[in-house]
Amino acid sequence: MSAQQMLLFSPDFQHPPSPPNGTTESPSFEVPEQEYEDPFCVPGKPSVVQFADITSAAFKIRDGIVRTPCMKSHLSELTGMEIFLKKDFLQFTGSFKERGASYALMKLTTEQKSAGVISASLGNHAQALSYHGQRLKIPVTVIMPIVAPIMKIQSCRNLGANVVVQGRNMKEAKLIAMKLAKERSLVYINGYDHPDIIAGQGTIGLEVVDEVPNIDAIVVPVGGAGLIAGVALAVKTLNPHIKVIGVESERCASFSKAVENGGPVMLDIESTLADGLAVPMVGYNAFATAAPLVDRTVVDKRRMDSYCNLAVGRVGKMRRRRSRSCWTGSDFSRTVRRTKRKASRIITVRR
Ligand SMILES: Cc1ncc(COP(=O)(O)O)c(C=O)c1O
To answer: Which long-range contacts (CB under 8 A, 24 or more apart) does 346-350 make?
Structure first.
């Protein structure tokens, strides 16, 4: 544990035992064949998140998360319009996922807090839960598939979570997590579809509208659609004129497919550099909340494999109107580097 973490976390709190650093826990869990139902995410009975849920999340999590800046970017010069970037990579674990994770943990009952929570994640949600679980003294177990980045696995261990590396992909990891949740009476917290997660992510939208006047459009990367659902609900409630544009890679275009299909549909996805976006099916609650509010979803058809480039390219089409745009997401530095390199191409991207 780093010196900084030691300052933040009370030394008397212990999570359930984790395996030694750098090793994976012995694979003692079979991948269950049976599907387990998540009571918070029921097919055919979606919960539509309300604006009041987001304001209540903003109030509850205000001491545990960073109110990140939304600053004008030098991408503005490249594109001839005003682009602002919401720098949520400045959260302690490097992503906006902390907002939803901390709100979901704070909403648990006393009994649920002492039993602990479980989730399956490739990394960002797992780190967010681990960090806030340690901060709030709530035991956290994360099932991470074997394809999860080793740095993120290690980071969750460093944050004291009980980390199980198991399952060939997210689908298998989730089945294992749901089974364990049932057997051990743990609350399963879906990283993009639990209503409290969506409400927590929506606090980004409140902050953006508060910080940047006269926004024309907000561009949001889409994985399981929790982020876009919360952000769209927040910004459209505060200012219905703001356009909300989702971006996703053709390799995992689960939101666009859900729009075509009239509801979430399971896809065979391919891997992408933007690993957080590789979700084969958007969430039921996320889709029901987001679908009526999202103006447009843009899919990268040329396999550029970067939602970041795509976002700027598409927004670039609006430059004649001198739009003022905001862009949420946490991959800021890589985004800017890649964008600069490909600048001339980006602004000429055509449909
Ligand atoms: C950096 C980053 N951006 C965007 C997303 C997409 O969020 P959601 O799954 O809520 O759509 C994720 C998901 O993990 C992420 O990690």
So the answer is: 346/78, 346/79, 346/309, 346/312, 346/313, 346/316, 347/78, 347/79, 347/312, 347/313, 347/316, 347/319, 348/313, 348/316, 349/302, 349/310, 349/313, 349/314, 349/316, 349/317
Phi first, then psi, for residue 140 (nearest 5°) are: -125, 130
pLDDT over threshold 90, residue 73: no
Structure tokens at 84: 């602002």
Question: Does the Cβ of 330 fall within 6 Å of ligand 1?
Answer: yes
Nearest to 293 by CA among 223, 246, 329: 246
> What is the Cα–Cα distance from 339 to 232, expressed in whole angstroms?
25
0.85 surpassed by pTM: no
What separation in Å is there between the alpha carbon of 11 and the centre of ligand 1? 32
Residue 88: CB within 6 Å of ligand 1?
A: no
Contact status, residue 258 vs residue 252, Cβ threshold 8 Å: no
Token pair 């065979």: residue: 268
Share of the chain above pLDDT 70, in %: 75
Q: Check residue 107 and give its pLDDT.
A: 98
**Model confidence over 212-247: pLDDT tens digits?**
998 989 999 999 999 999 999 999 999 999 999 998
296-308 per-position pLDDT tens digit? 998 866 554 444 4
Q: Tell me how far apart the alpha carbons of residues 51 and 70 are, in angstroms, rounded to a whole number.
A: 21
Neighbours of 84 (CB within 10 A): 22
Q: Closest residue (by CA) to atom 16 of ligand 1?
A: 276
- The percentage of residues in the chain with a pLDDT greater than 90, rounded to a whole number, is 60
